[in-house]
User: Fold these one by one.
Assistant:
Number 1:
Amino acid sequence: MKNRKLLMIPGPTPVVRSIQDQMGRETVAFGDPGFVGDFKSVLSDLKELFGTSGEVFVVAGTGTMAMEMALANTLKAGDDLLVVSHGFFGDRFIDMAKRKGIRVDVLSYDWGKAPKVEEIEARLTEKTYKAVTVTHVDTSTGVAAPVKAIGKMLEKFPDTLYIVDGVAATGGERVNIDEYNIDILFTGSQKAFGVAPGLAILWAGAKAMDRAKALEPIPEHYISFEKWLPIMHDTSKYYATPAINMIWALKESLSIMKAEGMENRYQRHEQNARAMQAAAEAMGFKLLAEEGARGVTLSCCLYPEGVDDAEFRRVLAEEGAMVAGGLAAYAGKLFRIGHMGNTDQHELLGAVAAIERTLHQAGLDVLGKGLTALQQELVRD
Ligand code: PMP
């Protein structure tokens, strides 16, 4: 019998049975009073759990669409944008903004290094920007940007909107939108929310909404705040068909978060990340993310000498764990493993055990080393 294949890529993440059940329900009309109420409660929980009195949008689409929604509603051709990039997904903003005629400056970091608050401040002092984008955790590196400290610094630049890509972070990395002075935060359902791919979630504060209002109407129809806001204020209204079953799945994800408590959830992510990172090092991998800036949602593990990426991931999949390869210059040099959302300790143990068996087959003496390190961290107070 073959092992079950654990979904350990950094998104989509494991979808637990109770969330799957919501996706499998018989679909109802979007005007059904039960659904209208469910959608409303999803929106109110999203604001409360993530700490904002601003607006929230839940729209069918992916994280990339949310990136575009953030830019399209707040910037126009000719505006200046500072992209703070510490990896592949930070860079995605550059092309996206340029296609819209937005003028882009980039503050770029070597992969594995975290953005520095003082350096962002220096760039904002040199030139006035309409917005700055920061990727909370870049999924190509596993580095977490200091989003709280950046937000504090940005209080000195009230005309610059703070846009945070939380796709590989929100729901796992600690965040509080209003307290962190974030104007726009967004994520996708398939990462730390543990829902299948298909929904974009975007929070926008008063400053972002004022900017959007001044830009109305924007060229884009489907992703315009103006089109969706009436629905987010009254979920019985129609603009474009809501993804009914996905919204139910999101509701279940939120009830899991509420039952766990956000602080407990953040601490669980921290502990699981420490455990997975200790296990990786004990098995001979090096982490790409520098110490002190490691995200809690995924880890990027550089191969030891002599381990072939394609062969490693092929055997690992046979052993029962799917992980992702490296991106761009790191293709072939590392693998990426997710430990966010509703990934539990059994899955972490199963994945580390499968990695040990894979390395053992490649002739490395690792059996028990990763598991011991993992368990030690999992039982630490
Ligand atoms: N930003 C980050 C940080 C991501 O990790 C991803 C997806 N890996 C995206 C944006 C794009 O999201 P999607 O694939 O859902 O379009």
Note: The pocket of 4'-deoxy-4'-aminopyridoxal-5'-phosphate is lined by residues 11, 62-64, 67, 89, 135, 138-139, 165, 167-168, 188 (CB under 6 Å).
Number 2:
Amino acid sequence: MSTTVAAYAAPSAKAPLERTTIERRAVGAQDILIDIKFAGICHSDIHQARDGWGEGIYPMVPGHEIAGVVTEVGSGVTKYQVGDRVGVGCFVDSCRECEYCLRGDEQYCTKGMTGTYNSLDKNGEPTYGGYSTHLVVDENYAVRIPEGIALDVAAPLLCAGITLFSPLKHWNAGPGKKVAILGLGGLGHMGVKIAAALGAEVTVLSQSLRKKDDSLRFGAAHHYATSDPATFDALAGSFDLIVSTLAVPLDMDAYLGLLKTDGAFVNVGAPEEPNSLNMFSLIGGRKTLAGSMIGGIAETQEMLDFCGEHGLGSDIELISADQINEAYERVLASDVRYRFVIDTATI
Ligand code: NAP
Ligand code: ZN
Ligand code: ZN
């Protein structure tokens, strides 16, 4: 039998989020029931709740940075026990048989992953995310949170952490590599922490110098203001890798000019408007322009274990559910230090 649980939902694209109730499915043989303790607020939640990417399904319960405790397991569950600390990220299912699912890149499933929210599951039912008290999920789409990371600062790792870890590993950020992180928000601050822990020399490219002290505290060696044109002269041809977390279109040609020959500009930000560039910015210097989306389940576990070993968590502002709408406005104003996390006990 399904269970009725409390949640915060956007009733429509134009309306603020409000308290409601939703149904969670009965715990199936492969399912675990999670008592959600904390849910991070990702900028993607705002894009989707306000229908910035289109095709939003309403009412929408956002939230794909979920940390909690297992309170029930299905008869066939082998990986988790009651009491285990677990996380769920951006997807809760995929086809499990395409070449990408088979190699652990479920996020690139050819049939399309099932999003944790704003998606339809295999039965055509809408999925609801982490701004709620409980979640029922297939054990294969959950990950284990290491004991050394508190659940509140672990929650943002489930999206912000893996979204930066995956490209940093893929493009070999490490000793001897100069890496720039563009935008010091939720994703960006985890990018700085992870790239520094991987051994890279990290530079933060931020709109201003306001967050410089934080950049250095997170492990960056340098912090520059992109509002200052002198930055683009000073850093021309400097980086092996730039990871952009910007949620707005940007002057691609200017940023490609900051790469070394053979350098890569990897975009993880998901602006609502298209972006253009001059092809000459790529061909001079054999540069790569790429994108990257979250990471697979095994890689998410690898990221969590890495964060556990290196003592990394997110810097958070813990809020109650009735502060979600205000938090959205602060994220849009780049006024987040550095991830809002909802205490789901307040829902
Ligand atoms: P966020 O916390 O709002 O951080 C974005 C940062 O970008 C801001 O803190 C700010 O940093 C900078 N910024 C904001 N407005 C700007 C402007 N007008 N011009 C220049 N810089 C600006 O957002 P987030 O949660 O990190 O997410 C960032 C983007 O990544 C969103 O589009 C989100 O949907 C997307 N995303 C993608 C994936 C993926 O898998 N690819 C996963 C999660 C999220 P400074 O103050 O330092 O300039
Ligand atoms: Zn996200
Ligand atoms: Zn697949």
Note: The longest strand covers residues 31-40.
Number 3:
Amino acid sequence: MLGLMQQQSLLISSLIEFAEQNHGDSEVVSRRVEGDIHRYTWADVARRSRQVANALDGQKLPQGARVATLAWNGYRHLELYFGVSGSGRVLHTMNPRLHPDQLTWIANHAEDQVLCFDMSFLPLVQAVHAKCTTIQHYVAMCHADALPADTGIPNLVSYEAWIGQQADTYAWPELDENTAGSLCYTSGTTGNPKGALYSHRSTLLHAYAVALPDSMCISARDAILPVVPMFHVNAWGIPYSAAMTGAKLVFPGPALDGKSVYELIEAEGVTFAAGVPTVWQMLLGHMKPAGLKFSKLNRTVIGGSACPPAMIDAFRQDYNVDVLHAWGMTELSPLGTVCTLKNKNLSQPADVQMKLRLKQGRGIFGIAMKIVDENGKALPHDGKAAGDLLVKGPWVIASYYKQEGGDPLVDGWFPTGDVATIDADGFMQITDRSKDVIKSGGEWISSIDVENIAMGHPAVAMAACIGMRHPKWDERPIVCVVKKPGAELSRDELIAFYEGKTAKWQIPDDVVFVDAIPLGGTGKMLKTRLREQLANYVLPGL
Ligand code: AMP
């Protein structure tokens, strides 16, 4: 017997309609690229998203067309979130921190047709546009008078001119809820970056999950500062959950230093902020010496990398701010777990609670987790056995965009590349990473790319890149090199060789010359052994 309830698609447009109708006066505040503060409401976001949709219709952009962005967190970016996806196109948020060659590759792979960019990325777009073969329209996210006369970029309009002439009425299409809504590439896998293509349905279900009380606990009484970029897995889904609840949104633009973030938190009465540990390191580093306090901030979600214990202590003890340690991935939209304590934990001693808070947290409803040994056999959830972490759920990818890399699933489960324990209460803790990538300041560095560049140097016989712990960046890459017999090569020469071949922050911090790189039976580099050999190694400058 079937239920007799209405069949209604879960659509991104319904979020902005809801926010307009129920929280039309709730504010959206942005620090702009220009440095000033822009302030308007969810009703304005809704109105201008409809103008975006009309502008895309006017350009005869078909359903499913990819509209890319290169932009900081700000109100125009938010309008694109709803206008592009709501009208049936796919919002492709690109990471401007990538090397121009990587960006070009990604834009061509996605077959983007429109690129909307913040003016701070004008030089980047000028450098890459000739190689982006599918982009037909460029939109600079500024007023017409802020656009220089001759940029060399074809079909370039300002955002305000682009939407300014458009009607602010629009009938959002009744899409199938499985229609693609947004696309985000991850460099956290081996080989080329791969796209995670989210649907309206997965985005809506994820938005509910993000807002749940034992998740980020988002409500209409919150003022949320997503420091996590809107080009990192849709700012962890916060823009959608904020629309779903009518929370005030505060966007930091490009100013992510401790002082700017602190001032925005205080000026806008921010109650909840989200970001990677590096951002909070900068914020606490600014506040501590000046003896500053928060007046309204009551919790922060920290994820993307493991949250150091000292940070949890500082937020909780010095500032009375709760820390929600969270884990997720681009492939998971991204939220998988959040560390909130259970009732029974609250009466436990402080050291026991601290041990729990350091875990990545409990799976939110919708995410199933298991850990397996090297033969795929399920391991017990006893908090001790560590194994490969696999997940499944309605906002976990079934396949990468264009089926890149083949079927990623193992018996319907997605292997995360993380190694973890799960305890009897469901608290998951990452203990290691099986994927060969390095995460620095919340951004990926491919060890294979670092090795390939080194191998391109005529004096290098073999190279192995490994990540080393760093107090600010979490991890930094170093490259271990075996020189060719008789070849001369210094550390500085090899570091200089990387210049221009990869983004600056992806260049290894150091070169360690070794006689041999340990290899396994199949010829694979044994990086765990290499790491053991370098147990006493200290990164330069630490
Ligand atoms: P991304 O796809 O860029 O969001 O990166 C996802 C990966 O970042 C995960 O598979 C983990 O390796 C790592 N990660 C995310 N959150 C955490 C966390 N709280 N602790 C440790 N590693 C994390």
Note: The chain has 16 helices and 25 strands.
Number 4:
Amino acid sequence: MSKAKRLYIKTYGCQMNVYDSERMAEAMGGAGYVETDTPDDADMILLNTCHIREKAAEKVYSELGRFKGLKEAKPDLKIGVAGCVAQAEGQEIMRRQPMVDLVVGPQSYHRLPELEAKTQEGAKALDTEFPVDDKFDTLRHRPKAKRGPTAFLTVQEGCDKFCAFCVVPYTRGAEVSRPVGRIVEEAQDLVERGVREITLLGQNVNAYHGAGPDGVDWSLAKLIWELDKVDGLERIRFTTSHPNDMTDDLIEAHGACAKLMPYLHLPVQSGSDRILKRMNRSHTAESYLRLIERIRAARPDIVLSGDFIVGFPEESEQDFQDTIDLIEEVKYGYAYSFKYSTRPGTPAAERDQLPEDVKTERLHRLQARITHHQRIIQDDMVGRTVSVLFEKPGRLPGQMVGKSDYLHAVHVADADVGIGQLAQVEIIESGSNSLAGRIVSK
Ligand code: 5AD
Ligand code: SF4
């Protein structure tokens, strides 16, 4: 038998890319590759890229530059670019970095083995199609390897919303939902391999409308209730959602489904109606706040998380203040905030841009308020008993680290628990980035 080849994958960007990288590794497993965690001994290097902001794409090009020496020392080394930069720039990548052998978009990665075979014949290989065949279909015969306690599962992909700043509708394509049966099958398989918590992924996951076994389309809430029945699956999360797709049944599930965790990532982007309109968000600050009220009525202890863009074209100081006001009202437990970054081909890229220093200054002010609320919410956990799913040993001997239902990292000293075990933990201390607790029951 010939020696297995080594594949090094570096993943950028969102959780869906993490999921895609796992699937790519599996697909390449069928072509005789095993994963390695260093590029130095690899036979193939694959960068799974992100195009959401400018810096993300630039990072890919500089990373490619760093592999030049490796490629010169080992001409047989294959270098591939996958993901959203691959989709957006295609052939341009090979022009800018001639040492790239392979370019594959996020909708065609099931064709990686064929593309790799082509590169072995000395040819360049490119596939950035949106094929009609289902990439998930070809990835069902995966090895039954043991998994950690948490996993991602893509249920929906693509976006039809066309926010004026965003490349996702162009790189990931139109919204597509996977059928319920396939998702349940994949969830059962993950549980058999040790997974206890599944995060359902989609660019607009709450717009999920996959075909149910009864022949009609199911909502995300209905899918969650179906997954609730999977024995051994203890926790369900989903990300990322659009406010307009928060349906009544999903809000209700947050109050009624014990396996659905009390955490919700619900990006608003801005608190100014004028900017929201310019962003083509199709909701207002007020409608978002009313929605949050309804979600909190269903699940009062829910921790909310959001995304914000500062310095969107035409954002005035007053518009920015409106965003701060919204943050003060919602009080997020977590948030991701970004300076607006022009993306070629999106409507907002054509508009007058704000100076960089204005964006930077607003970002700092916004982050200070986010951090303030985050701190209070984290500190408020002290004295409470939360459930923790243990994921790994801590840095100290005997210490174990896991995540609470609210997604806080929690560490426990002298914890007599294994990886993948759930326990009730009383929180005794709030540190800089994590909580400390002691187990009260298992
Ligand atoms: N500039 C800055 N941030 C962006 N995002 C998406 N596109 C851009 C852009 N052009 C942010 C949004 C989105 C998150 C995934 O990335 O906040 O919710
Ligand atoms: Fe991008 Fe999300 Fe808007 Fe879709 S809903 S265009 S993925 S920001």
Note: The chain has three domains: 5-127, 135-379, 385-441.
